[in-house]
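Predict fold of ABC transporter ATP-binding protein; 310 aa.
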Amino acid sequence: MTENAIEIEGLRKTYAATPRTEAKEALKGIDLNIPRGSIFGLLGPNGAGKSTIINILAGLVNKTDGRVNIWGFDQDKNPRQSRAAIGIMPQEPNLDPFFTPRGSLEVQAGLYGVPKSQRQTKEILELIGLTDKAEAYARSLSGGMRRRLLLGKALVHTPQILVLDEPTAGVDIELRNMLWANVRRLNEEQGMTIILTTHYLEEAQEMCDEIAIINHGQLITRDTTANLLGRLDSKTMVITPATETAIPDLPAGITATTRKDGTLAFTYKPRETSAEEVLAVVHNAGIRIADVKTEEADLEDVFLALTSNK
Ligand SMILES: Nc1ncnc2c1ncn2[C@@H]1O[C@H](COP(=O)(O)OP(=O)(O)OP(=O)(O)O)[C@@H](O)[C@H]1O
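Predicted 3D structure, encoded as tokens:
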């Protein structure tokens, strides 16, 4: 049995030309394995191909070429089993306005062939915090409640893999926190593999064990979040001088700029230069320090470094 929740090999997708649009090669041969039990982030700028990958996983878009294996099942040979292993929370709320949350969950469970005795409707309503809205029409639910209901619908067949497509785009902080708390719980308590796409790098940094960066239909990189951040090997020490000061003479390996607020920002590579050496430069120049802080590279820096000029 493979250790991967998802195995993607040589995945290609070309959307056919229409009278109004040219053919579009959205995926140009993607190889990607996603380990079981991970929280995995799929990052990329608009139009990179993230939704295309997710829609192929969901069985909503037909691939042009390549192999997709979901939870050990080849998508082409075992379409039913591979679909059953995955639950998708889509970007757009696609709820029937005349269904209640309980009704929506029951219908969805029916679509997946979950027998009545095995349905988890009550537990799911509780998980998504909609127990007291169970009988309300979907059209009377707030935007946040609808999003939660979408998460619930993705869970009716207790999939091993949960895919969240831009789950927190445009949602408020309270709902975002609730969604993440739920997702973490599903991952920790049930070992559910979580795959998410997000534009918010901070969110990916905070949530994901591993990250794949996609651009123009190609995989740019895939690594643990910690390694990705480590790759930049850059740190900045920001010194607030006690009195206004110019930048002192600097040894090789340290660069500095004066920021608008009068602080001095020293940038160095921690693998080559220690914080102590930076402080010694400041000290030897006779600069008195009122305050000091350090800034680490974040995912945004990595992302820009990898996707610019490509
Ligand atoms: N149904 C379609 N027909 C033709 N072209 C499409 C179709 N769907 C997507 N595309 C094109 O394929 C490319 C990849 O789109 P995709 O939606 O997968 O990107 P994305 O990374 O999910 O972007 P976003 O973050 O904006 O959702 C884009 O150039 C897009 O215009």
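The pocket of adenosine-5'-triphosphate is lined by residues 15, 24, 26, 44, 46-52 (CB under 6 Å).
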